[in-house]
Amino acid sequence: MNDLFDLRDKTIALSGGTGVLGGSIAEYLVKNGASVILLGRSADKLDDKRNALNRISNNSTVSYVVDVMEEKELISLREQIKNAHGTIDGLINLAGGNLLRCNTASRSNRF
Asked: Is 16:94 a contact under the CB 8 Å cutoff?
């Protein structure tokens, strides 16, 4: 039987991964064998975090600049990720937790 929590060879997309909580989660994922796709608005912060994670595990992390509050950007990003990485095994959404509009409107179930 496979270990339910085994992260080896899993690809996890993580929004908000440059913050304190997201960064810690990203580090845990990488240390436990996952490939991480970091999503965020700041290219500089993404570059710094991606480089730090790749020092822990070589080529474990890629990053994409995106505002997860913008639906058109997400649709485009979904295609980029699908083309570059195939399917993902998990999504951890930590971005935008302090923005009112993140929690107010129900959207269609596209993602």
From this structure: yes
CA distances (Å), origin 69, targets 1, 31, 56, 100, 110: 39, 29, 30, 11, 14
Quick: pLDDT tens for 1-19.
Answer: 467 788 999 999 999 999 9
Is the pTM for the entire model greater than 0.70? yes
Render the burial of 45-63: b for 16+ CB within 10 Å, e for the rest.
bbeebbeebeeebeebbbb
Instruction: State how beta strands 61-65 and 90-93 pair.
Output: unpaired
Give the residue from 66, 3, 64, 54 showing the smallest Cα distance to 29.
54
Name the β-bridge partners of 15: 39, 93
